[in-house]
Specification:
The protein is of the alpha+beta class and about 210 residues long. About 35% of the residues lie in helices and about 15% in strands. It has eight helices and six strands, in the order βααααααααβββββ. It has a six-stranded mixed beta sheet, covered by helices on one side. The two termini are about 30 Å apart.
Length: about 210
């Protein structure tokens, strides 16, 4: 899965930008047949909003806004749509459905915690974001990125997410382990597989990921 935090549309190539815009248009226009056809080719797009993240509406938010049929919403969730994902103004899909009066969708869209984050979750995410700023050099200062929330990690037992960072020639993979978040930051220019970190509610530290002899 991928977290798209890039806010500058000019960072995307022409072909990719056009395809992502077309995908966002299908969600906006409730063209579910076309959207699922696109997801068959690009399953990693299920949680991506229109490039630039102006509103942050994903396909699931659009389905909630339209009051889409149960099979559509269920199929998006089966494709990996995150019920915890929020728009730029902080709304989850369930919040959008409630505002629009689509009460029949509320139970389906209510986030379910399958694997809780180490508590307190706010402190864990604070240290995770601090690590991202530290491990990516000055890339996040030069180009604005929306930092990824950790809440999607609670929705499945096993989920690894990639956060692309402009200027880094790579990015950050992260996933939840028993009592911490494991982070791997790397660039195509790195020798080996980059740096590995362990993040807990108390802080973060670099760890040795070299194979044991």
């Amino acid at each position: 899965m991928k977290w798209d935090g890039i806010t500058d549309r000019e960072q995307f190539s022409g072909w990719y930008l056009a395809e992502r815009d077309r995908f966002a248009d299908m969600a906006r226009d409730a063209d579910w047949h076309g959207l699922f056809h696109a997801l068959g080719k690009h399953p990693e797009w299920v949680n991506l909003s229109r490039p630039g993240n102006r509103s942050g509406f994903t396909a699931l938010h659009q389905a909630a806004w339209h009051g889409a049929d149960f099979p559509v919403v269920s199929r998006l969730i089966a494709h990996g749509a995150w019920r915890t994902q929020r728009t730029r103004d902080g709304r989850r899909a369930v919040d959008v459905a409630r505002e629009r009066g689509h009460t029949r969708l509320l139970e389906l869209l209510e986030p379910v915690v399958v694997r809780p984050l180490p508590a307190p979750a706010d402190a864990l995410e604070h240290h995770f974001h601090a690590l991202l700023r530290e491990s990516t050099g000055r890339c996040l200062e030069k180009t604005e990125h929306l930092l990824p929330p950790l809440s999607p990690l609670t929705e499945t037992l096993s989920l690894k997410i990639f956060f692309q960072v402009i200027g880094m020639m790579g990015g950050v993979f992260y996933h939840l382990e028993d009592d911490h978040v494991r982070v791997n930051a790397g660039s195509r220019m790195d020798y080996g597989d980059g740096q590995h970190y362990r993040v807990t509610p108390e802080g973060w530290a670099e760890i040795d990921n070299s194979p044991q002899q």
